[in-house]
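Input (structure):
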């Protein structure tokens, strides 16, 4: 696991397309995410290819960080890599002093919801209808982070 590098961006874009075939980030958005959040874009690299990524966006006052993307290449799913990336991202956010982590997930994405619940995220009771436009409802999930050494 390592930080993304500029030369990874084309491959990262392909990985994102594999992860979200219907709604990938346009390349320019990934490029700008890299520009804005270079320290919060982690990739899993097996030495020959990228297997997964996680991207977080953190408020300057550290009150909140959003998980903006998490994807594992289809051939490598179900082996614990998604959990590994999320655990490392959360560990780093906790170390920075971020107090809350928020994410959105499609209500039908049961695998992702289970992963987030197992990490301690709690879904809001009400679905946000049309959150990402018409018909694109999303569940918001939140996790309170405690500071290291404070339970
Ligand atoms: C969601 C995703 C990142 C999970 O990554 P992964 O590496 O396959 O998941 P892991 O092997 O780390 O498993 C994590 C948890 O998911 C659950 N899970 C994994 N595969 C599953 C499956 N096929 N069916 C049901 N649950 C599954 C397990 O309960 C596991 O929980 P545990 O580790 O607490 O026991 C991956 O499936 C993916 O890239 N999906 C497409 C993009 C996406 O939906 N991203 C999330 C958007 S919010």
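Output (sequence):
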């Amino acid at each position: 696991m390592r930080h993304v590098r500029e030369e990874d961006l084309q491959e990262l874009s392909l990985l994102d397309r594999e992860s979200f075939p219907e709604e990938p980030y346009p390349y320019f958005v990934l490029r700008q995410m890299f520009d804005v959040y270079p320290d919060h874009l982690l990739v899993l690299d097996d030495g020959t290819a990228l297997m997964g990524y996680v991207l977080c966006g953190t408020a300057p006052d550290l009150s909140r960080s959003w998980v903006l993307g998490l994807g594992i290449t289809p051939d490598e799913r179900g082996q614990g890599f998604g959990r590994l990336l999320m655990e490392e991202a959360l560990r780093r956010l906790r170390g920075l002093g971020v107090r809350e982590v928020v994410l959105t997930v499609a209500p039908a994405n049961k695998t992702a919801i289970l992963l987030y619940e197992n990490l301690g995220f709690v879904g809001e009771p009400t679905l946000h209808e049309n959150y990402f436009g018409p018909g694109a409802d999303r569940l918001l999930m939140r996790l309170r982070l405690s500071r290291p050494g404070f339970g």
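Notes: The mean pLDDT is 95. The longest helix spans residues 81-96.
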